[in-house]
């Protein structure tokens, strides 16, 4: 397969696609199309097709004119007429400003966007296009390693950005948006992507408005939604049910931005493209797996949303559980999105429902260090004084299948801890009948091999091995076989949002969460969450900036595990 | 319990207590009961036990039957029981159980100290000057030598003690990481160095040496180590004289010999037979300095103390193993010795084969020397005798580059003009046992190549049913995992893995999981000779080659060597400084192997 250079701006869209060819696991079959409509909003009931594109068919009437578009296959000529319109709903929000627009610009800068594209901001505030552009431009940056033509590029990008002000629940406003979109699309084959950067309570309104009034008449229409996907099994399936009134599964792109992280992407490569790891990847060799997430700051005055969800919903049930599923899944039939998601669902469904005994919850309290005082969670004015919401949780999970039976998967997530990081730690069993056991003291498990995949910061992979300290004596040492990304790959690693946006544009679903995955994920956590709330379980307090509640150690000890991130060597 | 050695102790530590090796912890391990009990019988009247053997019809010492081995440990010994045995090779004198105890527990428990006398035979030679004396000094500097020790140089040239010291001092240096008190230490060390001039085959001269040694040893328990840094043709003369005339009377006497151990199976066996007329197996320390290299030592640690490697260590996962040695210089006017041996004998049959044996052996019962050597012998004996079809030989020719003319091998004045001696060889070996059946072990050794390097490369099989095969082009074997253990230079271990190139595409890359010794361990890595000398002093035989190992090693190579010489096979010529003859690639290709050191990334 040809590998084209990435960061060269393609002169035409067809190159843009072939430069991504190496990851094109899904075909571009959905470009097979259809009818074009002009100047009219679509007002019928939800449309469905098997691939997220509007259905081919006679129902697509447009004041009597039907314009059959040739049924494709010649991608070259087709794509040249292709356009994508990306509408960021909730354009004035924080996520949009900090992540989405910059990610879009990075994709543009690197030449990944189709030759013709339009970016629309949609929100309630009254803004002009210029005002939007100004807002956006303050957060755009060029990748550190390529500053060439940055301001030119930025200017060009901003010229493609527009704003439309409207109510989230108003179909009429979306209809106006549709008119504007059409104008920009100018008769090209139109694909539309809506990024819902809005609170979950208006998800369904927007989806209704946008899908009814602003779906693409002749290309695909996709919706990216971000967590929270409900608060528990019931609310999540309710949300899914509502979304599905207007959308089919293939149109829904549930984003979990952790899945877009470089090292999470690399996890499958490590496992499946290296002979040396796969034989070890089971209960025969792996003693436990630890998934660790920590932030070194608290809610800092923005705890309103968080308080309603808590760390388990915010981090564990989605990000960490997704990583776990990727880590533990069986080899998929192929790298196709559906094949991978099938395997992930199998893992999730093999998991034991989490019990209260296997969870430790914590909440940070105020702490004064070096004359500086750090606030407690409940000091946050946006948090109720008596809040029992956990800002820290540790849990041990089990996958009751043939590969993982009995192997504890420990998760830990917390805010306001002593450092920031996300990592996967795989602790191997001790060497049976170790010839060197006298070198290791009494606890052989303290000197086992450990594979660490550090997702952030300072992406790295390392394998702890025992080796001899050079010299005349026979002292053993645990050292690392290392791969520090920053040394090997000096180029900046793209932000997770760039990858995910691009995937959504390309219809690559591998990194998005399917409804059944979501259901299975909630099924593991919902009973626990309900119990925590019903019983009003009080979180263990830990000081801001500390290593978290000691309860986490006892939880680990219960399953004969020692947290790898809190040992001396780390 | 770990006693590290970075700091030079203000006073040398007691012997044997400074090291911390599991298998040779002298404080806990009982003194071994050896098999030289016969000596005790000879003790009372004879000055030298082996003299008696000689007088007994001039025959060798009768082999000791296992049943005669005295089982007593020190505590059982009575003052009258002089047949007590102590550590292998130690010649007991009349001593009490107390004294016996001393040997076990070190010198501090009684009035009687032990001492070690190290005699470097061939003291004026190159190896002695460059390696042995500096290694001894380093051991002294680091506090690894016993408190009382004596070093003697022995050679034919007339020299005074101070001339020897002058000569030795020129090559001594302190480890780069510790320059403290270096001069003072050096001075102290040199004061313990003496010289004795004598013929290598003169018992009378060795008797004189013995007297001098006694003088230095005083009343201490004397242990004597002879380092034979001399040409192989006088090995036997020296061994005869030392053992007859200058063996220790109350401690051990050990002899270190270096390659060549013969030229083939027959001459090697003859040498062993000759040595054994005067020495026990336990007294012979056949040095292979490659076994003293840090990363070769580490090989066993890697294998046996890491769970992640052992499951992979078999034909099921390993596609081939490559053991590569290259030097970037030729014989440079010193080809006389080399020409009569050639690269196969000089490097392959010993250094590289020893590494293969260590690499491929089954898990030993323990880390005891005998257990490890038993396993190594098993590997060697399971190996298929090398055939000529599985060997490529080469010889370097002259080459002009950048105006500099590099000489051909036969341009060396010490080399016959029509020499067919290989300066390069590549060979494919096979171990016909359950673990390694069908896995090619490729060896390659050469002089005058483009780099200086010694490394072990383990190439793994490709991932069956690789999901990412579209990313790898047509030859899946080109993107397999590879474990590289670089012995020299720049000691390192790295595992090549496939991973994703960061970015929005899905391009795979082979990157390394790395351990660079220089980065992680800033201290200088000790020279192999230091380790081996210390092992010999401590009686640790793990890194020395036993007679049966040597026999098995020769058995593999002798038929080939004979054939090469009988058929006068002409080596493939390769330019000085090149990557060696291309024939090596074809040999590798025959077994579906690609040399890891000559890939695109190098």
From TrEMBL, chain A:
GO molecular function, one term: NADP binding
Annotated EC: 1.1.1.49
Listed SUPFAM superfamilies: Glyceraldehyde-3-phosphate dehydrogenase-like, C-terminal domain, NAD(P)-binding Rossmann-fold domains
GO cellular component, one term: chloroplast stroma
Protein name, UniProt field: Glucose-6-phosphate 1-dehydrogenase
GO biological process, one term: pentose-phosphate shunt, oxidative branch
Gene3D superfamilies: Dihydrodipicolinate Reductase, domain 2 (3.30.360.10), NAD(P)-binding Rossmann-like Domain (3.40.50.720)
Keyword NADP: yes
Matching Pfam families: G6PD_C (PF02781), G6PD_N (PF00479)
UniProtKB keywords: Carbohydrate metabolism, Glucose metabolism, NADP, Oxidoreductase
Reaction catalysed by this enzyme: D-glucose 6-phosphate + NADP(+) = 6-phospho-D-glucono-1,5-lactone + NADPH + H(+)
Ranges for domain Glucose-6-phosphate dehydrogenase NAD-binding: 88-266
NCBIfam families registered for this protein in UniProt: zwf
Transmembrane portions of the chain: none
Main enzyme class: oxidoreductase
Domain spans labelled Glucose-6-phosphate dehydrogenase C-terminal: 269-563
Protein family: Belongs to the glucose-6-phosphate dehydrogenase family.
InterPro entries attached to this UniProt entry: G6P_DH (IPR001282), G6P_DH_AS (IPR019796), G6P_DH_C (IPR022675), G6P_DH_NAD-bd (IPR022674), NAD(P)-bd_dom_sf (IPR036291)
Pathway assignment: Carbohydrate degradation; pentose phosphate pathway; D-ribulose 5-phosphate from D-glucose 6-phosphate (oxidative stage): step 1/3
Biological role: Catalyzes the rate-limiting step of the oxidative pentose-phosphate pathway, which represents a route for the dissimilation of carbohydrates besides glycolysis.
Entry keyword annotation includes Oxidoreductase: yes
Species whose genome carries this gene: Rhynchospora pubera
Automatic annotation (TrEMBL), chain B:
Gene3D superfamilies: Dihydrodipicolinate Reductase, domain 2, NAD(P)-binding Rossmann-like Domain
Record field: catalytic activity: D-glucose 6-phosphate + NADP(+) = 6-phospho-D-glucono-1,5-lactone + NADPH + H(+)
Gene Ontology cellular-component terms listed: chloroplast stroma
Keywords: Carbohydrate metabolism, Glucose metabolism, NADP, Oxidoreductase
Domain of life: Eukaryota
Pathway: Carbohydrate degradation; pentose phosphate pathway; D-ribulose 5-phosphate from D-glucose 6-phosphate (oxidative stage): step 1/3
InterPro entries to which the protein is assigned, alphabetical: G6P_DH, G6P_DH_AS, G6P_DH_C, G6P_DH_NAD-bd, NAD(P)-bd_dom_sf
Residue ranges of domain Glucose-6-phosphate dehydrogenase C-terminal in the record: 301-595
GO biological process terms, semicolon-separated: glucose metabolic process; pentose-phosphate shunt, oxidative branch
E.C. number: 1.1.1.49
Domain Glucose-6-phosphate dehydrogenase NAD-binding: 120-298
GO molecular function: glucose-6-phosphate dehydrogenase activity; NADP binding
Compositional bias per record (Polar residues), positions renumbered to this chain: 72-81
Residue ranges of the region described as Disordered: 1-21, 58-86
Pfam family, one: G6PD_N
Family assignment from sequence similarity: Belongs to the glucose-6-phosphate dehydrogenase family.
Known function: Catalyzes the rate-limiting step of the oxidative pentose-phosphate pathway, which represents a route for the dissimilation of carbohydrates besides glycolysis.
PANTHER family: GLUCOSE-6-PHOSPHATE 1-DEHYDROGENASE 2, CHLOROPLASTIC, GLUCOSE-6-PHOSPHATE 1-DEHYDROGENASE G6PD
Entry protein name: Glucose-6-phosphate 1-dehydrogenase
Natural source organism: Rhynchospora pubera
């Amino acid at each position: 397969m040809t590998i084209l250079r990435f960061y060269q701006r393609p002169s035409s869209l067809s190159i843009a696609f072939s430069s991504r060819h190496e990851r094109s696991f899904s075909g571009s079959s959905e470009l097979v199309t259809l009818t074009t409509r002009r100047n009219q909003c679509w007002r019928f009931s939800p449309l469905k097709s098997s691939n997220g594109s509007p259905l081919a068919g006679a129902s697509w009437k447009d004041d009597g004119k039907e314009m059959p578009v040739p049924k494709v296959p010649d991608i070259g000529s087709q794509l040249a007429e292709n356009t994508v319109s990306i509408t960021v709903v909730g354009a004035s929000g924080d996520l949009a400003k900090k992540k989405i627009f910059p990610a879009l610009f990075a994709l543009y800068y690197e030449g990944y966007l189709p030759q013709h594209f339009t970016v629309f901001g949609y929100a309630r505030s009254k803004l002009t296009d210029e005002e939007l552009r100004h807002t956006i431009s303050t957060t755009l940056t060029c990748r550190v390693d390529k500053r060439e033509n940055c301001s030119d590029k930025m200017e060009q990008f901003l010229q493609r950005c527009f704003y439309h002000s409207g109510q989230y629940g108003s179909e009429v406003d979306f209809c106006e948006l549709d008119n504007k979109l059409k104008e920009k699309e100018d008769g090209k084959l139109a694909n539309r992507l809506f990024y819902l950067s809005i609170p979950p309570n208006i998800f369904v309104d927007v989806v209704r408005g946008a899908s009814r009034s602003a779906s693409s008449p002749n290309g695909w229409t996709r919706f990216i939604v971000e967590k929270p996907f409900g608060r528990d099994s019931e609310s999540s399936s309710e949300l899914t049910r509502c979304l599905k009134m207007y959308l089919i599964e293939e149109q829904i792109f549930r984003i979990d931005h952790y899945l877009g992280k470089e090292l999470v992407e690399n996890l499958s490569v490590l496992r499946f493209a290296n002979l040396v790891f796969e034989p070890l990847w089971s209960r025969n060799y792996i003693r436990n797996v630890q998934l660790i997430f920590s932030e070194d700051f608290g809610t800092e005055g923005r705890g309103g949303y968080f308080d309603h969800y808590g760390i388990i919903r915010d981090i564990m049930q989605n990000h960490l559980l997704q990583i776990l599923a990727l880590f533990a899944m069986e080899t998929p039939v192929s790298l196709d999105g559906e094949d991978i998601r099938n395997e992930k669902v199998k893992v999730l469904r093999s998991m034991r429902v989490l019990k209260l005994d296997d969870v430790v919850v914590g909440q940070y309290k105020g702490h004064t260090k070096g004359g500086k005082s750090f606030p407690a969670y409940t000091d946050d004015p946006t948090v109720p004084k008596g809040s029992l919401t956990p800002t820290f949780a540790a849990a041990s999970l089990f996958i009751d299948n043939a590969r993982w039976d009995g192997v504890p998967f420990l998760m830990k997530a917390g805010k306001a801890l002593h450092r920031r990081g996300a990592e996967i730690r795989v602790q191997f069993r001790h060497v049976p009948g170790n010839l060197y056991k006298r070198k290791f003291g009494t606890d052989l498990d303290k000197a086992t091999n450990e594979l660490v995949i550090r997702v952030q910061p300072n992406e790295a992979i390392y394998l702890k091995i025992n080796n001899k300290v050079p010299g005349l004596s026979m002292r053993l040492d645990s050292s690392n076989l290392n791969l520090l990304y920053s040394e090997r790959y000096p180029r900046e690693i793209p932000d997770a949002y760039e990858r995910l946006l691009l995937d959504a544009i390309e219809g690559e679903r591998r990194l998005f969460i399917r409804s059944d995955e979501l259901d299975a994920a909630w099924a593991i956590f919902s009973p626990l969450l309900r119990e925590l709330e019903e019983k009003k379980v009080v979180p263990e307090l830990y000081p801001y900036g500390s290593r978290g509640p000691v309860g986490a150690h006892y939880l680990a000890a219960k399953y004969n595990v020692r947290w790898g991130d809190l040992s001396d060597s780390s | 319990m770990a006693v590290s050695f970075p700091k030079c102790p203000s006073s040398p530590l007691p012997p044997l207590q400074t090291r911390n090796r599991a298998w040779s912890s002298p404080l806990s391990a009982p003194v071994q009961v050896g098999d030289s009990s016969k000596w005790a019988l000879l003790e009372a009247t004879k000055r030298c036990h082996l003299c008696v053997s000689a007088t007994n019809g001039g025959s060798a010492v009768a082999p000791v039957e296992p049943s005669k081995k005295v089982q007593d440990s020190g505590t059982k010994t009575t003052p009258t029981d002089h047949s007590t045995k102590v550590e292998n090779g130690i010649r007991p004198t009349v001593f009490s159980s107390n004294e016996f105890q001393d040997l076990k527990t070190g010198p501090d428990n009684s009035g009687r100290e032990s001492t070690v006398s190290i005699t470097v035979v061939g003291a004026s030679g190159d190896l002695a000057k460059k390696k042995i004396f500096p290694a001894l000094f380093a051991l002294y500097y680091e506090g690894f030598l016993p408190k009382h020790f004596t070093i003697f140089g022995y050679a034919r040239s007339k020299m005074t003690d101070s001339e020897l010291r002058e000569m030795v001092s020129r090559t001594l240096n302190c480890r780069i990481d510790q320059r403290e008190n270096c001069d003072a230490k050096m001075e102290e060390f040199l004061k313990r160095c003496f010289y004795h001039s004598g013929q290598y085959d003169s018992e009378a001269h060795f008797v004189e040496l013995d007297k001098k040694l006694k003088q230095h040893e005083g009343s201490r328990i004397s242990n004597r180590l002879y380092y034979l840094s001399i040409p192989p043709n006088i090995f036997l003369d020296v061994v005869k004289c030392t053992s007859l005339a200058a063996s220790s009377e109350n401690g051990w006497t050990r002899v270190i010999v270096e390659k060549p151990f013969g030229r083939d199976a027959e001459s090697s066996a003859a040498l062993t037979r000759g040595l054994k007329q005067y020495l026990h197996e336990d007294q012979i320390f056949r040095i292979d300095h490659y076994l003293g290299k840090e990363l070769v030592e580490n090989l066993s640690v890697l294998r046996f103390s890491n769970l992640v490697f052992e499951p992979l260590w078999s034909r099921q996962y390993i596609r081939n193993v490559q053991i590569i040695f290259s030097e970037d210089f030729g014989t440079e006017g010193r080809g006389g010795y080399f020409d009569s041996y050639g690269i196969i004998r000089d490097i392959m049959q010993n250094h590289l084969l020893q590494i293969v044996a260590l690499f491929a052996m089954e898990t030993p019962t323990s880390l005891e020397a005998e257990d490890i050597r038993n396993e190594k012998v098993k590997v060697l004996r399971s190996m298929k005798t090398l055939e000529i079809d599985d060997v490529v030989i080469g010889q370097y020719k002259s080459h002009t580059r950048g105006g500099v003319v590099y000489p051909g091998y036969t341009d060396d004045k010490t080399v016959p003009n029509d020499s067919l001696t290989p300066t390069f060889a590549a060979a494919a070996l096979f171990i016909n046992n359950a673990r390694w059946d069908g896995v090619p072990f490729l060896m390659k050794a050469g002089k005058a190549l483009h780099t200086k390097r010694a490394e072990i490369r383990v190439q793994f099989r490709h991932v069956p049913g690789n999901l990412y095969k579209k990313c790898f082009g047509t030859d899946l074997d080109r993107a397999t995992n590879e474990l590289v253990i670089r012995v020299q230079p720049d000691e390192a271990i790295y595992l090549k893995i496939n991973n994703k190139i960061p970015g929005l595409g899905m391009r795979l890359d082979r990157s390394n999981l790395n351990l660079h010794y220089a980065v992680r361990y800033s201290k200088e890595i000790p020279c192999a000779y230091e380790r081996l000398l210390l092992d010999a002093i401590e009686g640790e035989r793990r890194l020395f080659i036993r007679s049966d190992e040597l026999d098995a090693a020769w058995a593999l190579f002798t038929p080939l060597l004979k054939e090469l010489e009988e058929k006068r096979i002409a080596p493939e010529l390769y330019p000085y400084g090149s990557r060696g003859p291309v024939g090596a690639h074809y040999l590798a290709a025959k077994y579906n192997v690609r040399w890891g050191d000559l890939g695109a990334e190098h």
